[in-house]
Amino acid sequence: MMKRRMYANLQRRIIFITLLVSFIPLISLGVTIYYQFAQMYRDKIEEQIKYRARAQSNAIELFLKERTAILLAMADTHTFDYLVDEGNLERVFQIMNHRAGGFIDLGLIDSSGRHVAYVGPYNLLGRDYSSQPWFDEVESKGLYISDVFMGYRRIPHFIIAVQRQENNRRWILRATIDSDVFEGLIRAAQVGKTGDAFIINKGGFYQTHLRFDGEILSKSNLDPTVFGEGTTVLEKVNREGKKELYAGSWLKKHSWLLVISQDVSEEMTRLFKTKRIEIVIIVSGCLLIILTTIFTTHLIVRRLGMADRKMNELNVQLVHADKLAALGKMAAGVAHEINNPLAVIAEKTGWMEDLLIEEEFQKSRHLEEYRKSLRKIEEHVERARKVTHGMLGFARRMEPHLEDVDINEVLHETITFLESYARLNNITIERDLKPDLPIIASDHAQLQQVFLNLITNAIDAIGKDGLVYISSQRINSEIAVSVKDNGPGIPREYQARAFEPFFTTKERGKGTGLGLSVSYNIVQNMGGTITLESEEGKGTTFTVGLPVVVPEKK
Amino acid sequence: MPVEEKEVGEVDEFSVLLVDDEREFLETLIKRLQKRKLKVRGVTSGEEALKILKEMSPDVVVLDVRMEGMDGIQTLREIKKASPLVEVIMLTGHANLEVAVEGMELGAFDYLMKPMDIDELLYKLEDAYKRKTIQEQKIKHLEEGRELEGV
User: Fold this and answer.
1) Do A351 and B25 touch (CB under 8 A)?
2) Which chain A residues touch B100 with a CB distance below 8 Å?
3) What is the distance of C-alpha A512 from the center of its chain?
């Protein structure tokens, strides 16, 4: 019970430690890799959007620069008088559109702010612009690119105006940029299903149409001041609660901001897919580790238990052998100490018997009584001598003297020897000796002693009327001889002690209790085993296992 | 002498030296052997045995293996050195059958386990004595032969 709890504990501990040391690195590795990967991925996306914003802003800047340059060139190379003629203005407009394109109309405005010549789809001739803010700007700076506004024509547009000083006269050449061409340029920067590109002015008003919602010229929810020098990327949550990346790049000397927006989740889809795959791999890895750990631990602990049990058995055997050895030593000592007094008793008795022959004793009435008593003493000395010699036999380290032995022959001899004794008690001896047993190198006399002892025991155990069954066979590298009787059996509590010296269940004076222990010793020294199997009421089986030692070829 | 006495032991007279440190055993055995017409003396140690050996020159020595002081094997070795022709019967009272066997290898005639039967001892003594006389005769023949050759 204690053992089982100990093993369960051990098993739990091994599983826990194994899982701990395999999960911690696995999971931290997974998490680290994921976050590093996510960071890299985000950096890459940011880098991309930033790059696109910068490239597109350069393209727009170039577009505006080209338009401004051609307008300036036209103003520089023509006179007011020439341009005021609408036919001439029309020719110049056509050259401009031919060279650069993207102009909707072209107008000439005199110093008082009046539109004196106009080429284009709207009727704007004669309009007075002197009160408009851009007029003052052109007056002061000589060049002006407007924000998008509605103006007289009531559609959003923006203009480029340049001023020219000709002798003492100042005039302004003004062109309107084709919104379609301009917005087309910006739309080129829109990416994916959700990406957008637009321009807002300093005040945060949209200068171009948006892809999804938000009107041109309406106020955007972006604060242009958070966009710094060059190109800036920032993340914002839009109205639908989705994360969006915004890259802003200033144009037109900081009066316009080109913004490219992108839905993060759309770009991150692949990353999320990667995350899912990673989680699946880690989870199944963990499962595999758990299963393997439990399985191997179970296996190890079971092996351990088995080894433990085996060791226990071995220990029991060792203790048993040790006990027998100690008893043997003691037996030898005791035998020696007893043999000397026995010798003295025997001599004294002998001497007394010798003296009884003398004449003086012959007349005694009790002569026969004396003689009988002396014979009895001698008889009992002889009995004691048998015991002590048996004890010496048990203690002696007898190296079997090797000869070629046919086990069946030994058995036949022994059985023949005992058959008449058995018949006297109405006991049948049956034999089942396998004829194909190998000849082994062993000690004939000692083996005979062992079998004699076992068979005598069997006969004595039965008492009267019964059967002794003797069999021999080869089992692997052993010859197994079993002697089975149908006597009363050996009670369980005696079975463990059966091989101890002086242990006997026979009546006092009938057995010395040395036979089995001497047999045990003999077989042990031959490298064999004796085991007993008994059930009360059903009889006893002694089995001798002898190693098959092949005799040397002579 | 009473007639009955002759029945106890009918052996040729020869001399035996008993060596055993168990005094009671020794004394009784001496008496019993003397009753059987043997010339017997007994000593209780190996050292004594060697001392008396020259003076008595016994035919057979009965030697206990385990004694205080000089043990049986040592004594046997010395006896054989001093008088190679003396026959020795070893007496053992204990486990060491090997010692007895070792004694045989050193030239002991035989061994007996204590307690032993008196008749058994007598047979062994006679056999030992016989062997001794045969050996002596052989040697005598050899010596005579040599003398003849020498003349």
Assistant:
1) no
2) none
3) 64
